[in-house]
Amino acid sequence: MSSNMAELIRDTDAMPEGWRTAPFSALADYVNGRAFKPEDWGTEGLPIIRIAQITNPDAETNFFDGAVDPRNLIDDDDLIFSWSATLAVMRWRKGPAVLNQHLFKVTPAEGIDRDWLQFRLDASIPDLADEAHGTTMKHIRKGTLSSQSTIVPPLDEQRRIAEVLRSVDEAIAAADGVISQLQETRGLRLEALMALPGTYRRIDEVCRLSGGNGFPIKHQGKAAGQYPFAKVSDMNRPGNEVQMRNAENYVDEADLRTLKAKTFPVGTTFFPKVGATLLTNKRRIAAVEMLVDNNVMGAVATDIDPWFLYYAFCTIDMADYVQPGAVPSVNQRTIGQIMIPVPDRAAQEEFVETMRDLDAAIEMQSDALAQLTATKQSLMADLLSGRVRVPA
């Protein structure tokens, strides 16, 4: 039992009046799905719900038109607990279907609210995973659910707790929906860039392309300094979603002389030039003077607005320009020959203003979403433990 769960159960003196302890196995009936084989898959009948559909609602779905044990049938509002490798709890909302193995159909026991149970299981996954079988691929078996316990409020309080947490979920869904709409609008605006009136020019006619610098391990590890020295992985750091502002490693002037490295100016567009991440089409623009390693290429604007160049690069699918070989890569010559529209400066600036407003709105909504998610985690910890009570 993990320290968090053990502490929760051991401190019974602090348990709110009317609450009780119970093993997870007593909270619901957990029925594993049917062990389908590939030859069972078809194009007609009930959709087969596998882990792929849990992790990606748009994943390809197979169907089964044979006889099914009623215990493996699911419908709207049923709880599904993915107990192997991908550990997750979700509510099904896509109509009649049949459950595959490695997924539990979870039917709440008498006196257990379905919504509360979903929040309780979701919050307990880290603790249950600590006790799960397997190292790289975790498995939460029924034995774990029988041996691990939690505290359970009365049914009325379960419902009040669930109502509070549902309201936060609704706010999260609303924020996520706004972000999706903004990103869709951003995509449409980027498509419009290619139709802007103006002369088409080669990329290397309007910017200077160059690869990054070698960065030996012995020079890495400085967490602060004059210049960020970014790797592809730093594109995923918080705050670097559009503009590159920080990195895991930093260097100073003395390091530059030793490395014989040159910095890139503010406004440089960066993108991966080798490896699988090349195909993710990541693009970032430098917010500060900085360096990048030799897995990254930089484009320094010379006869084009730097931000317009960045957005033009966002329209390019690097998969169209990858060199043949075991490791995906692009070279400077190939990228330099790509043609992009270059309208007059006023049109560039107008387009950039619209796009930057969109990016600012996406960033604001993303920050709000992160705050809501943190609020939910805090509320779950307080409400499910009884530290904070929801008045009747």
Automatic annotation (TrEMBL):
Keyword set, alphabetical order: DNA-binding, Endonuclease, Hydrolase, Nuclease, Restriction system
GO MF annotation terms: DNA binding; endonuclease activity
Type I restriction modification DNA specificity domain: residues covered: 16-182, 201-372
Gene3D superfamilies xrefs: DNA methylase specificity domains (3.90.220.20)
One of the GO biological process terms: DNA restriction-modification system
Keyword DNA-binding in annotation: yes
UniProt xrefs under InterPro entries: Restrct_endonuc_typeI_TRD (IPR000055), Restrct_endonuc_typeI_TRD_sf (IPR044946), Type-I_RS_S_subunit (IPR052021)
Name assigned to this protein: Restriction endonuclease subunit S
UniProt organism field: Aurantiacibacter spongiae
Pfam family for this entry, one: Methylase_S
Keyword Hydrolase listed: yes
Family per similarity comment: Belongs to the type-I restriction system S methylase family.
